[in-house]
Amino acid sequence: MTPFISEIIGTAILILLGGGVVANVVLNKTNGFSSGWMVITTGWALAVYVAVVISGPYSGAHINPAVSIGLAMAGKFAWKDVPSYILAQIIGAMIGAILVWMFYKNHFEATEDADSKKAVFCTAPAIRHTFTNLFSEVTGTFVLIFTILYFSNASINDTNTIIGLGSLGALPVAFLVWSIGLSLGGTTGYAINPARDLGPRIVHAFLPIKNKASSNWGYAWIPVLGPIVGACLAAAFMLALS
């Protein structure tokens, strides 16, 4: 499997399971209907775990443009490979979103609320405020990338303290995303991943969903730009400390 295909598959699985848990909670007549934020954050964390397990051996399991950009800025990934990774991630996210719609199609049809249906695909702020919404995405992604940069090292300060993903597996990333979701996710829905929001938002725009809300393109730049800025700041901070 090539890195490009690996990133497509990994990101598609991420969105299938992550968007799937949102659908299970917000769409009518599912067995998980109205089960709450804890279920959503746990489902997303485990979705990341599964995606990393699948694509990690072949591409490093970035499954997120912010990760690719952050690693490249920190000198841990080649800049020449960033565009192909991002393209693969967006393609994978779109595929995953389509699969979620196919899987829950009957429940989309049973749900009247347009915003609930849109929430399966993309994020939205709890309170619309451009600066604080952007700050939320920057901060959440900073925590994500700064911690991942530590995961990607074999040791700290040339000691023998092993902390890398090679020894711990994909579980630390799941706990990291779970923590961000529980602590920082309530303001914007914690996209912290441009592909995770943009790919499904594009799919939402063209799918034949009955009683469909606007895809809210006026907000869509925030879950794209915010994570990129957060990733760049995390990499810069890491380089300043090294």
The CATH architecture: Up-down Bundle
Compute the number of strand runs.
Answer: 0
* CATH level 3 topology: Glycerol uptake facilitator protein
Bin the strand percentage: under 5%
- Any idea what the CATH superfamily is called? Glycerol uptake facilitator protein
Could you say which overall geometry the principal axes of the C-alpha atoms support? Answer: globular
Brief descriptors of the model:
single chain, 242 residues, mainly alpha, Glycerol uptake facilitator protein, globular
What does this protein look like?
By secondary structure, the protein is mainly α. It contains eleven helices and no strands.
State the gist of this model.
By secondary structure, the protein is an all-alpha fold. It is built from eleven helices and no strands. It has a single domain (3-241), classed as Glycerol uptake facilitator protein (Up-down Bundle).
List the helices and strands and how they pair.
Layout: H1 3-26, H2 37-59, H3 65-73, H4 82-103, H5 105-109, H6 114-119, H7 130-151, H8 165-168, H9 171-184, H10 194-206, H11 222-241
Helix pairs in contact: 1-2, 1-4, 2-9, 3-4, 3-7, 3-11, 4-10, 7-9, 7-11, 10-11
